[in-house]
Write a structure and sequence with these properties.
alpha+beta
Length: 142
């Protein structure tokens, strides 16, 4: 499939089957994120793959994941990201967005629906997953 065909095929899915996602597909999606470009290749992005009922319940306390059987919480580590010297702009959120985009397209290529979620409560997500500080949740890919 060409990239343009893949881009046309991708859409935001807000309805999911009640079936687990195969480990091979999870690994492929995570690999697509891992090889994503980041500013000066700093790789300041961390991803949590959540697929247990308990974990998904924790995500759902802070975000509507539409009953998805899998959610990736994409964090940016602001302390590890490149900073533009002219104005102090930190690339962490941009890098996390690039990672999420590649993961989203890989999910589509594997025949999975997804939705990029930015409407969530970061305090709830941080509390439920024991993170915070320089690790900033940027989005959730369901």
């Amino acid at each position: 499939m060409s990239f343009m065909d893949l881009a046309r095929k991708r859409y935001s899915s807000r309805e999911y089957k009640d079936a687990p996602v195969e480990q091979e597909k999870i690994d492929a999606i995570l690999e697509a994120g891992r090889i994503s470009p980041t500013a000066v290749n700093a790789q300041p992005v961390r991803v949590i793959a959540v697929r247990t009922p308990e974990g998904l319940s924790k995500v759902s306390e802070g975000a509507n994941i539409y009953g998805a059987p899998l959610a990736f919480i994409v964090y940016a580590d602001r302390s590890k990201a490149w900073v533009r010297k002219y104005d102090g702009m930190n690339s962490a959120e941009i890098d996390a967005s690039i990672v999420t985009t590649q993961m989203m397209y890989e999910a589509t290529d594997l025949g999975l629906g997804s939705v990029w979620i930015c409407y969530f409560d970061p305090e709830v997500i941080n509390r439920n997953f024991g993170l915070g500080g320089d690790l900033v949740p940027v989005n959730i890919l369901a």
